[in-house]
Every structure is written in C-alpha cells, then in structure tokens.
From TrEMBL, chain A:
GO biological process, alphabetically ordered: proton motive force-driven plasma membrane ATP synthesis
Membrane topology: Multi-pass membrane protein
Subcellular location: Cell membrane; Membrane
Gene (name only): atpB
Lineage of source species: Bacteria, Pseudomonadati, Pseudomonadota, Alphaproteobacteria, Rhodobacterales
GO CC entries: plasma membrane; proton-transporting ATP synthase complex
Record function comment: Key component of the proton channel; it plays a direct role in the translocation of protons across the membrane.
Annotated TM spans: 20-39, 76-95, 110-127, 163-187, 199-217
GO terms for MF: proton-transporting ATP synthase activity, rotational mechanism
Family per similarity comment: Belongs to the ATPase A chain family.
Species of the source: Tropicimonas isoalkanivorans
Superkingdom assignment: Bacteria
Name the record gives this protein: ATP synthase subunit a
TrEMBL record, chain B:
GO molecular function, one term: lipid binding
Example of a GO cellular component annotation carried by this entry: proton-transporting ATP synthase complex
Transmembrane parts of this sequence: 54-78
HAMAP family for this protein: ATP_synth_c_bact (MF_01396)
Domain V-ATPase proteolipid subunit C-like residue range list: 12-74
Residues marked Reversibly protonated during proton transport (site): 62
Record key words, sorted: ATP synthesis, Cell membrane, CF(0), Hydrogen ion transport, Ion transport, Lipid-binding, Membrane, Transmembrane, Transmembrane helix, Transport
Encoding gene, per UniProt annotation: atpE
Membrane topology qualifier: Multi-pass membrane protein
Top-rank taxon: Bacteria
Coiled coil: none
Protein's recorded name: ATP synthase subunit c
Amino acid sequence: MDSPLTLEPLFHIGPVPITAPVVVTWAILVGLAVFAAVSTRHLKLTPGKVQTVLELFVTTVDGQIRDTMQRDPAPFRALIGTIFLFVLVANWSALLPGIEPPTAHLETDAALALVVFIATIVYGIAARGMKGYLGTFAEPSWVMIPLNLVEQITRTFSLVVRLFGNVMSGVFVVGIVLSLAGLFVPIPLMALDLLTGAVQAYIFAVLAIVFIGAAAGESPGRPTSEQGETSS
Amino acid sequence: MTGNIIEIVSILAAAIAVSFGAIGPALAEGRAVAAAMDAIARQPEAAGTLSRTLFVGLAMIETMAIYTLVIALLVLFANPLAG
C-alpha cells in the first residue's frame, strides 16, 4: 500500500518537481477564481439564483466573524471566506474520480496553516501596533511568555495535523475498504467523508477566526480594509 | 535482522497507539452525545443549534484519535529508524 506521507512527482518544470496535489490545487484555484469572476460580474439589486447563494454565503461568514470576534467583519472577510471555500472545495474534490484531495497531504495543510499563522501576526500588529502586539505575549504576567510562544507554534501545528489527519484518514479508509470489498460498499464511508470534509473546513475557518481575533484584540478596531493582500 | 526487529516493533507500536488512543476519544464522544441527547430531550426547540455544536465538538474530539492515527502512520510509513 502506498504511504500517505510521500509523494511521487508527476512532472518537472525546470528543476522543480510538480506533484499531483499541486496540480489539483492549481485547478481549484483557477476554478474558484473563474467562478468568482463570472458570478460577480453582473451583480443586480434583485439577485438571481447564483447571487442569492453567494450573498447567503457572505452573510454567513460575516455572521460567524462578528459573533466570534465582536468586530466589524470587513477586513477579515476575504481571508476567512477564501480559506473556508478553498478547504471545502479541496476536501470535496475527492468526489471527482481519480482525484485525491490536496488537503490529504501534509504540505497543503502546512501551507494553509502558515497563511493563518502569518495573518495572525499581521492582523495583530495592524490592530495593536508592534509594541502592543508583543505585549500580548506577556499577558497576564511575564511568567507566561515562554508558554505563549510555545502556544503559537503548537496551535499552528495542531491546525496542520487536524486537517491532514481527518482528510487523509478518510481517503485511507476508503482505499482500504475498496481493496477489500467491491463496488458499493465504500459509498457510506464516502458520504461520511463529505460530512467530515465540510465540518473540518468549518473548523479550520473558525479556528483561524479565533486565532486572528485573539491577536487583534477585543477593542472595536479602526476601519482597516487594505490588508487583504497578505491573505493570498 | 535489526531492521526486521524495528519493523516488528513499529507495527506493534502502531497497533497499540491506535487501540489505546481510541479509548479516550471514544469515551469523550459518548459523553458528548449523551449530554446532547439529554439537552435535546429537555429542549427540543434548541435541537438545531445543539446538533450543530455537537458535530463541531465531535470533530474536535475525534481529532485526538486522528492524532494517534497520524503517529501510527508515521511509525509505519515514515519511520526514521527503519532506514
């Protein structure tokens, strides 16, 4: 049986080996970008079907951010929404035959968690200033500084392993069952995978909200809207 | 022969890790579901919120079991000692 931790390169671009999850990631990125561009080109005041779904999605994300952070959701909407959509589509890309979800490999999850980690620092510094942000590490007292530093690392690491383990175990179990028993037996497990994928995408996004909200603080922030660049 | 022993021990370690690592999350999930059932029985009108929170909580608890699975797979497939 193939190891879920190693990857064979599909082809090489110059000296850089390109693996299957990277190609799937590119396809998802292009697909989401094209979908977003096409579906938001002609926005109307009385929305059609697609626009209604999009507005519902944006409202839900806004509501989650507002409930968790107690802040104006506008600066965080792009990052959190993109993370949720990408992880959801990536988890569900297993529906297409022959495609393994890119989140079932450690590297994709590590990259996503790194985005969240950097966004935490950037939003924290933007909201509190450099001195104020570094000061949060000494709360409630300076004794907690090592513990807070370790917490930054471990929670990012657990973010990686949580997503990786859940998606990978789903793929793994379906593979094992498929090698044991034939045609229709894995279908319930695949349905369970869909539920797990959606829940994990939700959890990943909510944890990103919680981390960023903790770094940015409770105070109703200044309207900062041009920080979306860091999210891509 | 040494590599062989390491492989045998790795398989045993993976099995033990998963079996014992599953105990805690299993008990925890049982308690969580029981508490949610109790709450739904008392307040059926809150079933939607409760089950949504329950699912998220279950996924969080399940992650603990998944951690041991990841460790087991590391030991089996990416063992630094097996060479």
